[in-house]
Design a protein that fits this description.
alpha/beta; 5-stranded mixed beta sheet; 11 strands; binds 6-O-phosphono-beta-D-fructofuranose
Length: 347
């Protein structure tokens, strides 16, 4: 059996650990051979491959990024390309040409959404959930999230000391397009004064009141804001017009907007720090390495069992199989009661 492997969407720490576990387990337990597809769905779409054997995965466990490369290529948006053949047909032909019997797809909502569609068309696909945003339903955690939270927490810790020296309000913008998990966890762990998430539109007056209160108690406020957070009114001007291949808006700017508003309304100096892709880079935490390794082991076991159309997921401490479609049908958002716990520490 020859198994194809691809990683799509935004990269995240732990991808290499999954790839290593798939190849090592598949080779040792089942004698499988592997083909690596480069840059997400672009690989099988264009027939761009790389060798993937035990030698190729040596030493990659602690490395960030993905040796396979990644992209946000949407093959289902390529219907009329290449001589009138649809993206699906091109992928089907390329898999057959390379002798690939089954495909392990490591990705988030978009990449796995394509995997679910392709499984519906008869392709043998197994999904592995990946995103620093931790917003996939059907799994308690995705790998990469813990690393991103720790990077953001360390940044918040550092910002506390400089904010207090200069009596400034510091705004930290973290990733999180639709879900505020990174902001919630990093903000709670870092003792943020205010945490703003996409799920709970904010009142700028209230934010300024919390900031003022923190200055009155002789501490400098740290405001953690998810990139997709928006005020109760007037959110439109925060959106750029840029969209990716899956139609998602590219956010950016809420941190700077908050800094200007806080400065204007409170008279205190306020500065924004945008953590951006720093949250996605570098070596994964121990938690993410272990979760990613377990996902890889269980993904190749799912291939061996012929459980196509399923995705591995973490439930409590167990790795289970769920339909890929269950993971992509709706996003896992921060529930109101989880945000309420963080709110106890605002102001
Ligand atoms: O989905 C993961 C993520 O890091 C989001 O948090 C963020 O909005 C997006 O990817 C950024 O994507 P890109 O790296 O393509 O700009």
């Amino acid at each position: 059996m020859r198994v194809g492997v691809l990683s799509g969407g935004g990269d995240c720490p732990g991808l290499n650990a999954v790839i290593r576990a798939i190849v090592r387990t598949g080779a040792a337990e089942y004698g499988y051979e592997f083909t690596g597809f480069r840059d997400g769905w672009r690989g099988p779409l264009e027939g761009d491959t790389m060798p993937l054997d035990v030698q190729a995965v040596r030493g990659i466990l602690p490395r960030g990024g993905t040796i396979l490369g990644s992209s946000r290529t949407n093959p289902l948006g390529e219907e009329a390309a290449a001589g009138g053949r649809s993206g699906l047909e091109r992928i089907r032909d390329n898999l057959a040409n390379f002798g690939v019997d089954a495909l392990v797809v490591i990705g988030g909502e978009d990449t796995l959404g394509v995997a679910a569609r392709l499984h519906g068309e008869g392709l043998k696909v197994i999904g592995v959930p990946k995103t620093i945003d931790n917003d996939l339903s059907a799994t308690d955690y995705t790998f990469g999230f813990d690393t991103a939270v720790n990077i953001a927490m360390e940044a918040i810790d550092r910002l506390h000391t400089t904010a207090e020296s200069h009596h400034r309000a510091l705004i930290v913008e973290v990733m999180g397009r639709s879900a505020g998990w990174i902001a919630l966890h990093a903000g709670m762990a870092g003792g943020a004064n205010v945490i703003l998430i996409p799920e709970q539109p904010f009142d700028i007056e209230q934010v300024c009141a919390w900031v003022q209160h923190r200055f009155q108690t002789r501490y400098a406020p740290i405001v953690v804001v998810a990139e997709g957070a928006h005020p109760k009114e007037g959110s439109e001007e925060l959106l750029t017009q840029e969209r990716d291949a899956f139609g998602h808006v590219r956010y950016g700017g809420v941190g700077q907007m908050l800094a200007s508003e806080i400065e204007r309304r409170t008279g205190k100096e306020a500065r924004a720090t945008v953590l951006g892709h720093v949250q996605r880079g570098g070596t994964p935490t121990a938690f993410d390495r272990v979760l990613a390794t377990r996902f890889g082991i269980h993904a190749i076991r799912a291939v061996a069992d012929g459980a196509f159309g399923s995705m591995v997921a973490l439930r409590g401490t167990e790795i289970v199989r769920v339909p890929i479609a269950a993971a992509t049908s709706e996003l896992k958002l921060v529930p109101r009661e989880r945000y309420a716990e963080a709110e106890l520490f605002f102001g």
